[in-house]
Design a protein that fits this description.
By secondary structure, this protein is an all-alpha fold. It is built from 18 helices and 2 strands.
């Protein structure tokens, strides 16, 4: 084994993360009420979008968050292994893990206070758009990693000034319920990410040399998950939280996605380190083409079949395709082929678990999330990662997906970009009303979302090319 340069990146993983964040933007910007049910979360169908916890199904929108969680898990071994390779003490790494958790938690709380629909959800107000726009730039200077060539005192002064200005702004805002700043007002997605960043990283750090123990923790987690539904101390523990505004034991259920992600990350790291990394592949081009098509077909069949509730047919079709894949992934020789083979094996494992769990808990659901949901989406995430890996490492077509890579390397700007940058600009300039007026049909409602998403993607790409990354 040799240590790879710290500058080497897993671009397929960046692209997967970028795909998740841009899909998240798209799902939040397409027109409501007028598109087919599979264009929204399965449990908030059109036209009324009323949440129904008993409605099973899986749409591409439901797939977005677990892809991002899986990407986060897969990135943990890459980031922490580099720090360990530099000789950093474990105590310093643990401190950096909690620092990241703090930044993500602070980001979750501050962002939610600055969202225009939270400041004033019902009335048209110029002030809410102005505050939201100012909030974007404050967040930018709070979390951006300023150029290393700048003097430390200048970087620190800018960051500190942004924090002070943000605290002052939050102390002045009054919300529709006549309340002010509250720790409990937070973005739940970012709160979950903060918990997963801390617990996922700590679990990997202490089990990095014992994958079996890490998988075993999933068994303990499953026991907690089952017992939490019955009366007793486990249920009390599961519902208890010393600080409910930032942590709940129930958030740990998303480790069912993050921990498999760390295993995929271990495989990627091992592949990047091997001395055989540049060995010529033995598989022919048609085989790689077939694998990419197979990965896409598996995801499509799972989305269509599970949303249509053709569970048995979907399971059988998936089994047939997975069997075909077993022949396509046979006899790997190069490091990339071995990586693909091992990822595919794990992907089939998680998918099989998810499909076997499908009848449990009333069918696959995002909210409340089911065991089937965790494992099926983990398998699907791995299949997409395999396709991206082939595009980058085999076909050498990085240029095709540069926009996804740029957004994957700077995801939090994309997450904030629409609500706190593009939307306020459109509202303040008066363009939003005109756009809404001309996007009342299903086709135009979808095109509007695509256009908004593309604008955000390009904005984030510019920041990434300028090496202005957010530290969250």
């Amino acid at each position: 084994m040799t240590t790879i340069p710290s500058s080497k990146r897993a671009y397929a993983l960046d692209a997967l993360r970028g795909f998740a964040i841009l899909s998240m933007v798209l799902s939040g910007t397409i027109a409501y009420k007028i598109l087919p049910a599979w264009m929204y979360h399965a449990q908030v169908p059109p036209p009324d979008h009323v949440f129904n916890s008993k409605l099973p199904g899986l749409t591409w929108v439901d797939l977005v968050f677990p892809i991002f969680l899986f990407s986060m898990g897969a990135a943990i071994p890459l980031a922490l292994s580099r720090r360990l390779a530099k000789g950093l003490p474990r105590s310093e790494i643990i401190l950096s893990i909690f620092k990241r958790g703090f930044l993500l938690g602070a980001f979750a709380i501050i962002l939610q206070h600055l969202r225009p629909q939270v400041i004033n959800p019902n009335e048209p107000s110029m002030q809410k758009w102005q505050i939201a726009l100012v909030g974007f730039f404050l967040l930018f200077f709070m979390f951006v990693r300023l150029p290393a060539s700048w003097k430390p005192w200048r970087r620190n002064a800018i960051t500190l000034t942004a924090w002070i200005a943000t605290i002052f702004l939050l102390s002045r805002i009054q919300y529709p319920d006549n309340s002010g700043f509250s720790l409990s007002r937070s973005d739940i997605i970012l709160v979950i990410l903060a918990n997963m960043a801390v617990f996922g990283s700590l679990i990997w750090l202490f089990t990095r040399q014992n994958t079996f123990l890490r998988v075993g923790l999933l068994g303990l987690l499953f026991a907690l998950h089952l017992s939490s539904t019955a009366d007793g101390w486990v249920a009390q523990l599961w519902s208890y939280s010393p600080a409910p505004w930032i942590f709940k034991f129930a958030y740990l259920k998303y480790l069912f996605i993050v921990i498999p992600g760390t295993i995929a990350g271990d495989l990627i790291w091992e592949s990047m380190q091997t001395t055989e990394y540049d060995q010529k592949e033995s598989w022919q081009t048609w085989r790689f083409d077939a694998i990419v098509l197979l990965m896409l077909a598996l995801n499509l069949i799972l989305l269509v079949g599970l949303q249509s509730r053709l569970v048995v047919e979907t399971t059988l079709a998936s089994a047939i395709l997975c069997l075909i894949g077993w022949f396509l992934f046979k006899h790997p020789t190069s490091a990339t082929e071995i990586l693909l083979n091992r990822l595919y094996s794990f992907g089939i494992l998680w998918l099989a678990l998810g499909l076997l769990f499908e009848p449990y808990e009333g069918g696959i659901k995002k909210d409340p999330s089911t065991m089937s949901y965790y494992f099926v989406t983990t398998g699907m995430s791995i299949f997409i990662l395999i396709a991206f890996t082939i595009i980058f490492d085999i076909f050498q077509k990085k240029a095709w997906l540069n926009l996804l890579i740029d957004n994957g390397q700077n995801p939090m700007i994309g997450y904030v970009g629409f609500a706190n940058l593009l939307w306020p600009i459109l509202a303040l300039t008066g363009w939003e009303d005109s756009i809404i007026k001309h996007t009342q049909t299903p086709v135009m409602g979808f095109i509007k979302g695509v256009a908004y998403t593309l604008v955000i993607a390009l904005i984030v790409s510019v920041f990434t090319r300028l090496k202005l990354f957010w530290r969250t």
